[in-house]
What we know:
Elements: E1 3-8, H1 12-21, E2 26-31, H2 39-43, E3 52-53, H3 58-61, H4 73-78, H5 81-90, E4 95-97, E5 102-105, H6 110-124, E6 127-129, E7 134-140, E8 143-148, E9 153-156, E10 158-161, E11 182-188, E12 190-193, E13 206-213, E14 220-227, E15 231-233, H7 235-243, H8 245-250, E16 254-260, H9 266-279, H10 295-304, H11 318-329, E17 331-336, E18 338-340, E19 346-351, E20 356-357, E21 362-363, E22 369-371, H12 385-402
Parallel strand pairs: 1-2, 1-10, 2-6, 10-22
Antiparallel strand pairs: 3-5, 4-5, 7-8, 8-9, 11-19, 12-15, 12-18, 13-14, 13-16, 14-15, 16-17, 20-21
Helix pairs in contact: 1-6, 1-12
Bound molecules: flavin-adenine dinucleotide.
Flavin-adenine dinucleotide (FAD) binds at residues 8-14, 31-34, 39-40, 43-45, 49-50, 132-134, 162-164, 343-346, 373-375, 384-387, 390.
Amino acid sequence: MKKRIAVIGGGAAGFFAAIHAASPDTEVVLFEKSNKLLSKVRVSGGGRCNVLHHCPYTSELVKAYPRGGRSLKKAFGRFGYPEARAWFEEQGLELKVEADGRVFPKSDSSESVIQVLEKAAQKAGVRIQMQKDLIQLETKEGGYRLEFRDRSTYDCEAVILALGGQPKESGYAFLKSFDLNWVQPCPSLFTFNVPQSPLKDLMGLSVPNAWVQIPATKWKEQGPLLITHWGFSGPAVLKLSAWYAPDLKERNYQFPILINWLGLSEEEARTQLQEYFFAHPAKGVANSRAFDMPSRLWKAILHLAEVPEGKSNRDLSKKEFNRLLENLLRSPFGVSGKTTFKEEFVTAGGLDLRDLDMQTYEVKKYPGLYAIGEFVNVDAITGGYNFQHAWTSAYLAGSKASKLD
Ligand SMILES: Cc1cc2nc3c(=O)[nH]c(=O)nc-3n(C[C@H](O)[C@H](O)[C@H](O)COP(=O)(O)OP(=O)(O)OC[C@H]3O[C@@H](n4cnc5c(N)ncnc54)[C@H](O)[C@@H]3O)c2cc1C
């Protein structure tokens, strides 16, 4: 008799796990609660699906995971970026790497990724059952019993949980009879609302390399920064939201920020500004180009620093010069609330990694039970890393589950 393996969840992780769990010795059934498969893959990356991030080195890759980090080293060492990329290419998916390292299908369409996954699942003989909402999981002699909302049951030897991020703790209720540890869920990857921002009229403007910092903490991140009509967005803000997701939730998304628009140290900024003013003494301060930033933003910063636009560089008082420098390096704003970034978000929290063998994603206390993808306490910054973890964890769990004990 074949080993029966149930995969719960028809997202990226569930599909990839089912494909790798399938073998002549196994019967793999994938249960999906909705009537849609791979729905996040479809909408991901603005419909283009940022399927991976070009990062061949495991030690570098783990740095993109606020939750997971170093505990993912072994997993990525076994099946990381090179292996995942090779798998997709072997299936005939042509990929391209963009300048910032994000990997997309050459077609620029997530449908190409979906087709590859669906074809591979079909070829492997994975059976798919839709509208199967798992509501109860129990151990039984030699395996597990699943119960679905429609009251049907399924007995099997192995279960792979790929239910995605559960925004509420009630999402783990079906496992109540299991002795497991959970990290409280909270949203990650969001932009900052600044209702009183004096820069709202500048929406759409960006700087290439800002630092965004939360004062009186060590929390700061660097990268492109975008002014929006509701506040701030862009990689610097998204990274900050990801790295400090639980802390920012604890502050109820009410906190001050300081923006360094230049990405320079105080010393570097002071020298560059002095040298520019020295070289262009008669130039009007409003028309000065001391740094790489849009002129409308420069003028807005002059306004914040209370430096009269009509003055020439040589006429700036020492106080005005210092106020300008202060606002270039530490413009203060009050964040009040968050907004989802292009509908893209992930859930931080989930099954505690201490409960998992991180080389197989098998739950230590329950042989034959696996948990993968966003359902576990791993999430990443934007850029293809969340899917990378879905492929990695799914491959390791699926391959281990496929083995006969
Ligand atoms: C709009 C958007 C864009 C994104 N873009 C990117 C991107 O470009 N690159 C990137 O790396 N990441 C991206 N992400 C994040 C990425 O999509 C997720 O991290 C990834 O899809 C997680 O895969 P998963 O299989 O673990 O979970 P999911 O994709 O969430 O799949 C879980 C599945 O389980 C099913 N399920 C849940 N509960 C049950 C139950 N009780 N019984 C049966 N089935 C159940 C759900 O219906 C769902 O189909 C994006 C996310 C969003 C929301």
